[in-house]
Write a structure and sequence with these properties.
alpha/beta; 5-stranded parallel sheet; 5-stranded mixed sheet; 10 strands; 45% helix; 18% strand; elongated; binds S-adenosylmethionine
């Protein structure tokens, strides 16, 4: 096996999802760089790989800039170096990007050992269009930032994929309801684990469901793309309504005619009135 850096994907819940190549690299690596050595040592133990003769370098979000060079130096010293995050594919809402960038800059051998990625697994389960998608990582936790982050992607014509945590899900769905209205949302939870589920509905329906059934575990939240034609049609009709009716009446008429979310139509009416 060549010396250099191997970006090794690990399971997101089911240990059986480790790949043959990942096993081979983790066994052969003299050095393992990882987010949390306790997590990685536990995985190695489950895989029957001894940690005893390996050097562990902890590289996480807060020290990647300083630590990446140490990791590269191990490769330059003639070692096989594996980098794993706690779970899933390194670099995807996980550290590793700066390491990869330094490898390119210093012409260090870098390769990927692909495997599970929660965003892709969620998309597969969602039944939402998968021909085009935008992965937007974690949704901010503060109310204003959350709504701004969701609104930024509102008009993107592809499925949106976000990472979310169980305790924030209901708040996020409530914010998503005001932004995305009647668009279909999918919540994929505990993928590859015992209680894997994927639930779809409008954001308001899902907020109601998860208020009554507080979720546990890890979550991928996805939003269907806007219906281009319907959006264009209803904006045109709303603009015409606004010419002849009050804002309130125009919103009411269009909401009923197009079977849309009233808040969404109201926001669009305000945008149209303000000339946007
Ligand atoms: N790099 C990882 C990957 O490729 O899947 C993601 C790491 S990110 C720090 C962790 C987030 O991924 C979780 O908060 C959750 O949103 C999502 N996630 C990870 N495992 C998951 C699972 N089994 N089911 C659903 N979502 C999961």
């Amino acid at each position: 096996m060549k010396t250099g850096i191997y970006l090794v994907a690990t399971p997101i819940g089911n240990t059986g999802d480790i790949s043959l190549r990942a096993l081979e690299v983790l066994k052969s690596a003299a050095v393992i760089a990882c987010e949390d050595s306790r997590v990685t040592k536990k995985l190695l133990s489950l895989l029957g790989i001894s940690s005893r003769d390996k050097i562990f370098i902890v590289m996480h979000d807060h020290n990647e800039a300083e630590t990446a060079q140490k990791v590269i130096d191990q490769a330059l010293a003639g070692n096989i170096v594996a980098y794993t995050s706690d779970a899933g594919s390194p670099l995807i809402s996980d550290p590793g990007y700066k390491l990869a960038r330094l490898c390119r800059a210093q012409n260090v051998y870098l390769t990927t050992i692909p495997g599970p990625c929660a965003a892709i697994c969620g998309l597969q389960l969602s039944g939402l269009p998968s021909d085009k998608f935008l992965f937007a990582g974690f949704i901010p936790n503060k109310n204003k930032a959350r709504t701004e982050a969701l609104s930024k992607y509102k008009d993107v014509e592809s499925t949106l994929i976000f990472y979310e945590t169980a305790n924030r899900l209901v708040k996020t769905l409530s914010a998503a309801s005001a932004v995305f209205g009647s668009r279909e949302i999918a919540v994929a939870r505990e993928i590859t684990k015992l209680y894997e589920e994927c639930r779809t509905g409008t954001a308001a329906e899902l907020a109601e469901y998860y208020t009554a059934n507080p979720p546990k575990g890890e979550i991928v939240l996805m939003v269907a793309p806007p219906e281009e034609k319907k959006t264009a049609d209803y904006r045109k009709a709303l603009a015409a309504e606004l010419q002849k009716n009050t804002l309130k009446t125009a919103v009411k008429n269009i909401t009923e005619q197009y079977n849309l979310n009233k808040n969404e139509v109201y926001q669009t009416a305000l945008e149209l009135k303000n000339g946007r």
